[in-house]
Design goal:
single chain, mainly alpha, 6 helices
Length: 159
């Protein structure tokens, strides 16, 4: 559902009177947004960071690995988010009114990384604790209040 919304937002044709040139220089549009003022910059950065940020949580959730290495999980998730953002940017080359911007790729990837780092490790540790407590509750308990059960020695059978 999230990817369908992202596709609708980023790949629908826009009816605009003019389109700026594609930005292939890193940090150029970030500098331009900062020059417009703090409110405009915060809005532009927020859009870039939040567009694919839910994937930072949804991709590891879809993997379902509770015992995964935090660093490898972060790298896998960031790589998938970067590739998805790159795919969106490449598809935008054929959409009227949409412009390719390398800074949006950087902001989208950073948003995925921040969301993953903020949510996934804490959720995994909480899920691991829940699984461990359920596992401990499922183990049979020894009732030590009554003492040990006496055993009767076995007697061999006579010929």
């Amino acid at each position: 559902m999230h990817l369908a919304l992202v596709a609708w937002v980023t790949l629908r044709p826009l009816d605009v009177p003019w389109v700026s040139a594609a930005n292939l220089r890193p940090f150029a549009s970030i500098r331009a947004d900062l020059a417009l003022g703090p409110e405009a910059a915060a809005l532009a950065f927020g859009k870039g960071l939040l567009l694919l940020a839910p994937l930072g949580v949804l991709l590891p959730l879809a993997g379902g690995r509770l015992a995964a290495s935090p660093l490898l999980s972060l790298l896998r998730t960031v790589a998938a988010g970067a590739l998805l953002s790159l795919g969106i940017e490449l598809l935008q080359t054929g959409v009227p009114g949409q412009v390719v911007d390398v800074d949006s790729l950087l902001l989208n990837t950073l948003g995925v990384a921040l969301a993953h780092a903020a949510v996934v490790p804490a959720c995994r540790s909480a899920l691991r604790r829940r699984v461990e407590t359920r596992h401990r509750a499922a183990l049979p308990r020894e009732d030590t209040a009554q003492g040990l059960t006496p055993t009767i020695p076995r007697v061999g059978i006579a010929p």
